Amino acid sequence: MRRAYSVETVRAAEAALMQRLPEGALMQRAAAGLAAACGDLLRRNGRVYGARVLLLVGSGDNGGDALYAGARLARRGAGVRALLLAPDRAHPGGLAAFRAAGGQVVDGPDGLGVLDLVVDGITGIGGRGGLREDATELVHTVTRDRTPVISVDLPSGVEADTGEVHGEAVRADATVTFGTYKPGLLIDPAAEHAGALRLVDIGLGPELPEPPDLEALQYADVAALLPVPGAESDKYRRGVVGVVAGSERYPGAAVLAVAGALRGGAGAVRYVGPGADAVIARFPEALVHAGPPSKAGRVQAWVVGPGLGDGRAAEAAVADVLAADVPVLVDADGLRLLDAETVRTRTAPTVLTPHAGEAAALLGTAREEVESGRLTAVRELAARYRATVLLKGSTTLIAEARDTPVRVNPTGTAYLATAGSGDVLSGLTGSLLAAGLAPRDAASVGAYLHGLAARHGSDGAPVSAQDVADGIPAAWRDVRAG
């Protein structure tokens, strides 16, 4: 599992560790890891000896990491130059080591020629706000030939704790981070700036508290959570999920939500709504009912909202489902029709799955605010509605009302930006709820499988929501195989 901590927590852990280490040892560990990553990239693109490397060096420890790493590269035969953005505040030890190793300090970008690598050591995790104008111009100048960029700990100009980007920021091909991940490396829009991530172990682990601020499940974590039927399983033990979805205008939403539930391993699906004919035509194993949902039969979880439309019947269906004493997932039109106080006072779990626009409506704010501050938005939604919230988007986030780490899904792909894929996710996550997974786990596993399924369904080509649904079994097999 990838675990991320706030700047304040990282600083405290570093301070505790440095008390037990010789002076400068922690920075040397970071610099060694950074130099190794730079060397790997240079070798892949040609060579280390004779490579032309430029360090963009800010003040403080981040610049010191870059200078010490530059010294190591210079001793391996690279031609390393450093451009100091704050010469009077450059790290003195790092600068001395850099010069002693043969590194050259330059006054500006003129005359640098073609570069093989730019190392971004401008601000790091302590930076706030975007890059200053002079730094922005410098970064654009030295990368205009698409020179590869490695950022030190965090791309300069992004917010480490939130993933927000206020103004200009470095767009790195790779980021080498130290000790632990920072939330901004895993959450868009900042994550888009980070490129490939490389974590360098500097011995910080024992100093980091439980729980982390953010976590991202990996294959082994998801495999451990997957509900696998046993010899004594029947459809009820595997989980029966009810789906209230679709309308005369959007019958496909019903089909896709049911597809996600069945592909996700539900023992049975009870469908309630006007799309019964379309559902049965595609999935004859589905159990259909005219409604209301409370009369449809036994279920272990409900999914309500995809393609439901407007009107009194739709509103009544949402209210009926929310009155049930089982976990309920609310998506799409259901999010507009729900009563907030009803959600807050439910005794059974509730999962809300909005995209940015729907989240903005639930919060009474602008969509742009949600998209630029995804972590803040998902935490606020979970707290306000006392629910588990899966905020869909370029990085999908899952938060609970209680004090547990926010989860970020690492398998998202642009192929999911297609009509109906959210309906598939709703059915898939509903099946996991019905199987007995806790709401946070069901949402996390559902998002993970959903992303993998899109990759299987696409094979590098455009993908439809039905392709995503059909890719779920292959995603499931991949996870179990590790």
Automatic annotation (TrEMBL):
EC numbers on record: 4.2.1.136, 5.1.99.6
Chain sites annotated for binding AMP: 392-396, 422
Domain YjeF C-terminal, first and last residues per copy: 218-479
Catalytic activity: (6S)-NADHX + ADP = AMP + phosphate + NADH + H(+); (6R)-NADPHX = (6S)-NADPHX; (6S)-NADPHX + ADP = AMP + phosphate + NADPH + H(+); (6R)-NADHX = (6S)-NADHX
CDD domains attached to this UniProt entry: YXKO-related
Keyword Nucleotide-binding in record: yes
Cofactor info, note text: Binds 1 potassium ion per subunit.
Binding site for K(+): 62, 120, 156
GO molecular function (one): ADP-dependent NAD(P)H-hydrate dehydratase activity
GO biological process, one term: metabolite repair
Cofactors named for this entry: Mg(2+); K(+)
Keyword line: ATP-binding, Isomerase, Lyase, Metal-binding, Multifunctional enzyme, NAD, NADP, Nucleotide-binding, Potassium
Signal peptide interval: none
Any Pfam family the entry gives: YjeF_N
Quaternary structure and partners: Homotetramer.
Cited function: Catalyzes the epimerization of the S- and R-forms of NAD(P)HX, a damaged form of NAD(P)H that is a result of enzymatic or heat-dependent hydration. This is a prerequisite for the S-specific NAD(P)H-hydrate dehydratase to allow the repair of both epimers of NAD(P)HX.
UniProt similarity note: Belongs to the NnrD/CARKD family. In the C-terminal section; belongs to the NnrD/CARKD family.
Protein name: Bifunctional NAD(P)H-hydrate repair enzyme
Organism: Streptomyces parvus
This protein's encoding gene: nnrE
